[in-house]
Amino acid sequence: MKLTTQGGPVPPEAAPRFIAQLEENSALAAGAAGGWRDLNLTLADAAVRLRFAGPALESTVAPAFAHLTASNGGDPALTVHLWDSDSTGAPPPQPPWDPGTRPAYGEIASASNDDICTWLHWGTNAVSSVDVRTGRAFFWMRSTMLWPISEEATPLRAVLTVWLRRRGIELVHASAVGTPSGCALIVGKSGKGKSSTALACLAAGMGILADDHCAIAPGPQPTVFSLFSAAKAYAETLARLPSLAGMEGSLRGPPDEKALLFVHANRPEQLLAQAPLRAVLVPRVTGERDSAVHPATAAAALAALAPSTIMQLHARNQTTLTRLGEVVRSVPCYRLDAGLEPARVAAAIETVLR
Amino acid sequence: MGSEVFTFTGPEVVHETVDEETIIVNLETGSYYDLNPSGAVVWRGLETRQAVDQIIAGLCAQYDIDRATGQADVERLVAELLQEQLIVPAGKAADGGHANGHQAGAFEPQPSAAPYTPPALGKYTDMQELLLLDPVHEVDDAGWPRTA
Fold first, then answer.
1. Is the pLDDT at A163 greater than 90, yes or no?
2. For A5, A75, A165, A202, which has the most beta carbons within 10 A of its beta carbon?
3. Residue B79 pLDDT exceeds 50
4. Predicted confidence band at A117 (pLDDT cuts at 50, 70, 90)?
5. Residues 6 or more apart whose Cβ sits within 8 Å of residue B142
6. Cβ contact (<8 Å) for A105 and B136?
C-alpha cells in the first residue's frame, strides 16, 4: 500500500488523476508545438512510440534510440509523451503533492499505485509517470537546459525499467558485447571496468549492445536487448583507444566527466539490437598486456550485478533480484582479467562465446 | 535463544541464494551482504521459521560438527543479523521446532562434503550514496523543485 509523505494512505484515484492531468497538459504542449513528432521503435521485441511536443526534447532524447528505429509504429505496446514547458509555452502540470509540501526525489507515492509509477528525477527535476496497464507514459521537464550530458546516454530509464519489468524483462546495470549469435554480459559497479572493457571490444571490431545499461529477458536461454546507442568514456580511456577517436558527440561536459560517443552515428554495423546471452563476465582491469578469463561462481556474478542494478535503477524489489539470480544460474560465469590491448580483451571474451 | 524464532524484517530485505551463497540487500539502508555456505544454511532455516535449536541441529548434521560449535556459531550469526536489522524476533516455537503455522521438514539440510567454515556475514556499504540524493531545497511558485 502506498503511503503519502505524511504517512496516510494514498487515495486510489490519485495516481490515475495525475496521469490524466499529464495527458491533458501534454496535449496542450503538442498543440502549442504544432502537433506531435513521432519516433517509432522496436525495443526489446515490442513496438514503442516516443511522441515529442517540439524539437527541444527530441534532439536530446531521440539519438540514444536511433539504432532501434522502426519503419512504422503499428499498434505500440508503450507510448511515451515527452514535452517541456520552456520551449512549448505549456504551463507546468500541477504537482501531485499537497501545496506547501517539499517533495523528495524518487518515487512519488502520492501519484503511484500497483500499475502507475511516478518519479521525480534528481538532477533534471523532471517528472515521469508510466501506467503499465494501459501502456502510456509521460515525461515532463521545465527546461531542457537542465539536461546533463550524462542523461543523454540513457534517457527514460525509470519508465523503461518499470514497463519492461511488467513484461518479465529487467533493465540492468551492465555492459554487453558479442555477435548476433551470442553475447557476454559484463557486470560490476561503476569503476570496475565494464565500460572500458566494452569500449576495448568496440575498438577491436566486436559488436556491442550496451556500454552501461541493457535489458535482459531471463529464461532457459536469456536474451540481452540493447536499449541505448551511446557510450560514455573518460578522456584517458579514449586516449588508449585511438581507433575510437572522432566518435565523441558535439556536446561536451566538464573535463573530469565522461564524453558521449554515439555508436550508431559512427559504427552502426557494430551496434547489435539483441543477442542470446552466453556468459556473464566480472571484469578486473589488470594493467597487464594480456587478458584472460577464469571460471567464477554464479554467486560472485550475482554479487557484482545485483547491488548496483537494484539500488540504481528503480528496481528495489524482490522480483528483480530473483530474476537476476535466474540469469546468473543459466549461463557460465567468468572472471575477466582485462589487459591493456583491446584486441586481446576481445579475443579473451570470444573464447567464452563459442 | 534455543526456542526463539525469527523472521526477516520486511519487504525492504530482499535476498537470493545462488551456488550455496546468499546475497542480501537492504533496500532501505542501501547496505548489501553476502553469506558463505554455512551462513546460507542458517539463513534458510530462518526463512522457514525454524527455531534456533532446529537450525543448530541442521547445521551440525550438514557439516558433522559438534553441538557446542554449532550453537556458538549460529547464535553469533543470529546476533549479527539482528544487529543489522535484517531479522526480527517472531516469538517462540511450538512443538516441532517451528513457528505456528509452518510445516516441519520444510528445510532439510543435506550432508556436505565441503569442509566446515563458520558462518560469515560480509557487509558492504558502497551503494549507500545512491540513496542519499540531495534533498529538494526550494520549490518554485508552481510547487516544483526550483532550478538552480
1. yes
2. A202
3. yes
4. very high
5. A91, A92, A94, A95
6. yes
Q: What angle do CA B125, B119, A321 make, to 5 degrees?
A: 50
Model confidence at A31, in pLDDT bands (50, 70, 90)?
A: very high
Cell match 544460474: residue? A329
End-to-end CA distance of chain B: 55
Instruction: Choose, out of A1, A318, A319, A324, the residue to mutate when testing the contact with B (most B CBs < 10 Å).
Output: A318
pLDDT at B105 over 80: no
Instruction: Mutation target for A interface from B15, B17, B19, B24: give the one with most A CBs within 10 A.
Output: B19
pTM given for the model: 0.92
- The enclosing H or E element of A150 equals helix A149-153
Judging by DSSP bridges, how do beta strands A136-141 and A78-84 pair with one another?
parallel
C-alpha cell at B148: 538552480
Q: How many CB atoms lie within 10 A of CB A41?
A: 22
Distance CA B48, CA B55 (A): 10
Q: Which residues of A touch B143 (CB under 8 A)?
A: 94-95, 97, 99
A306–B32 CB contact, under 8 Å: yes
**Residue A25, min C-alpha distance to chain B (Å):** 14
A298 contact residues in B (CB cutoff 8 A): 18-19
Interface contact A318, partner B, CB < 8 A: yes
Q: What is the mean pLDDT of chain A?
A: 90
Cβ pair A235, A255 in contact under 8 A? yes
Nearest beta carbon to residue B16 from set A92, A99, A325: A325
Q: What is the dihedral of CA A310, A314, A319, A325, to 10 degrees?
A: -30
A19 in Cβ contact with A129 (< 8 Å):
yes
Calculate mean pLDDT across residues A95-112.
87
Three-state secondary structure call for residue A182: strand
Closest CA to A292 of A242, A354, A333, A336: A336
Nine cell digits for residue A200:
576495448
C-alpha cell at B4: 526463539
Q: What is the pLDDT of residues A121-155, one digit of tens each?
A: 988 899 999 999 999 999 999 988 877 766 778 99
pLDDT in tens, A209-245: 999 999 999 999 999 999 999 888 887 787 788 888 7
Contacts of A104 in chain B (CB under 8 A): 135-136
Q: Report yes or no: B29 and B40 within 8 Å, Cβ to Cβ.
A: no
Q: Could A318 and B143 be called an inter-chain contact, meaning their C-beta atoms sit closer than 8 Å?
A: no
| A3/B contact by beta carbon, under 8 A | no
